[in-house]
Amino acid sequence: MIEIKQLYKSYGELEVLKDINLTVNTGEIYGLVGRSGAGKSTLLRCINGLENYQSGSLKIDGTEMKDLSKTQLREFQKEIGMIFQHFSLVERRNVYKNIALPMVCWKYKKEDIDKRVQELAKLVEISDKLYDRPRMLSGGQKQRVAIARALSMNANLLLCDEATSALDPNTTQSVLNLLRELNQKLGITIVVVTHQMEVVRQICDTISILENGKISASGNVKEIFLKKPQALLGLLGKDYSYAEIPGIVFTLLLSRSEM
């Protein structure tokens, strides 16, 4: 479980996160939504320990992140996987070596590495691509490699920073299906940073909407879309309409400015 209370983060005089309060339950898929510059990616990096915060509390499974030493933080980060918009694969290494990289850095035994790579490749359905280099893969396949690498250390928390923003709609759907499947199969907690409302609708259980470094709305996805708080309307723009099909609320039309 992630528990954040009264968190503030600044760069010099600039406050980028202001009084952040939220709870991510174990096994949940949680969305952090907002426009560019709202602070959502900075908050994600605070969760991963890549950024410090000036005040407040950020606990993961009861551990206060700012109290960890560098050595303790490095050990703690083994259980946190992260994927990015542009995949961050090592181009000169094949798929096998990209997935294996964290385990190699932690000096795992060769046979353990091989077993884990084969398991993960099967899990994300890229077993036939293990000896291809990233340049030979589609965007969706690259993201599957990145997901496998993020899970290689048996992570129980997966952080996704705009992970589908560079993908076409069909590939986005495929990656979202995979993330939901991993969540259900492994029980892994997933935090998704996105500006894509369709991503929120597809896989998130709970969302927080960030505006100017503050959480302006938070709650169950279905309830947020039903209540239509001003923060949500600000993201969707003026031209929007809603329809309800078997209990699922979704956006039919976004404003042209958001497409």
Structure commentary:
InterPro entries: AAA+_ATPase (IPR003593), ABC_transporter-like_ATP-bd (IPR003439), ABC_transporter-like_CS (IPR017871), MetN_ABC_transporter-like (IPR050086), P-loop_NTPase (IPR027417). There is one protein chain. The chain has 259 residues and is of the alpha/beta class. The chain has a domain at 2-79 and 156-236: Rossmann fold (3-Layer(aba) Sandwich). Helix content is 36%, strand content 29%. It has 9 helices and 12 strands. It has helices at residues 40-47, 70-76, 95-105, 110-123, 139-151, 169-186, 197-203, 221-227, 230-236, and strands spanning 2-11, 14-24, 29-33, 55-60, 63-64, 80-84, 157-161, 189-194, 206-211, 214-220, 241-245, 248-253. The strands form 3 sheets. A 6-stranded mixed beta sheet has the order 6-7-8-3-9-10, with helices on both faces. Helix 3 crosses helix 4, helix 3 (95-105) packs parallel to helix 5 (139-151) and helix 5 (139-151) packs parallel to helix 6. It is globular. The two termini are 34 Å apart. Residues 241-259 have low confidence and may be disordered.
